[in-house]
Amino acid sequence: MTTSPFDEPGAVAPVDADAATTTAATNADAAVPAHYGDPFGEQRAMTRRAGVVDRSHRGVLRVTGPERLSWLHLLLSQQVADLPDGGGTEALVLDAQGRVEHHAVLAHVDDTVWLDVEPGRAAALADYLDRMRFWSQVEVADETEAWALLSVVGPAVDEVLTSAGVPAPHGDHAAAALPGGGVVRRMPWPGPDAEAAVDVVVPRAEVGSWWSRLRGAGARAAGHDAYEALRVAALRPRLGTDTDERAIPHEMGWIGAAVHLHKGCYRGQETVSRVANLGRPPRQLVLLHLQSGDDPLPPPGTPVLGEEGGRAVGRLGSVVRHHELGTVALALLKRSAVTSAPGGAPLWVAPESEDLVAGPAAVDPDSIPPDTGEPPGRAAMRRLRG
Fold this sequence. Notes:
The protein is α+β, with helices and mostly antiparallel strands.
């Protein structure tokens, strides 16, 4: 019987993405299997039936206490003051200039708010939250060592959960308690439809038994590379990979999903409000199609040029091999480069390493954010001047 996802036949550990390899894994993902011998087959399984992915390297925090929701509401970018029991959402912590410091996925179950974050970031978030407690009746605990996350993705996810004896909450980020401890939370991505994925937070000591339980219920073993490929195709950014130190929520497509435009009283709110009402974000996250063949994938941070030998207009984030789209990447580009991309000259990816091949790239037109017209604040100012 499988005792760990790494004990699964064919499990392949990630390799440093800066080395000359073909894996999509980054150093942050070194603790989980990259694939099980068939990355494209694992992707197809998650679009046609169901796959289970080891994401146990994510950090897990728990916030308890009678003031947990009202207190978090003052610190996070999302509306959480009235988050019901069994509800969930995504939220950001911004700095004073509105730049993204943390991204967390929340679940509110049985008087506890569970937050899971990118690998290696739980301690920093827990420290920030703990310093902001003052006299609030809350407790913050980094429990990454105690809890681990597995994801089940695919149109048959409910069949898998039912067979495994796991409750299947329905609704965007809806959550429920797991028998024996932990939570199961519905996710709107990266599956092929709105309810084709769940995250299951289980005791870390029981990851192996939960893995076997979900496998036995019909979920195929899928590596982290397959999960990342579907995430990129869904245009869902990842903090620290698709963002840089200057990234703001509007650039990343996090408005609505992780930022509530009509709540106030959180650090960085002024930048969010100013961009929403008076301007446009200086950059936009889009999907790029790359010409890489079997060449090693360029790492996050690789410059994107306006033309071969030209000036930099942005940076690559996650780069993956997708079973239908080919080699694609999330890229954070200047607005001018995005608006001129459709039908224009191709962009140019220029890796800094001599071991990696430079080449053309094209913006996927379906990934370009729609033009929402003149910002409301600017329109109001124009009317006043008129």
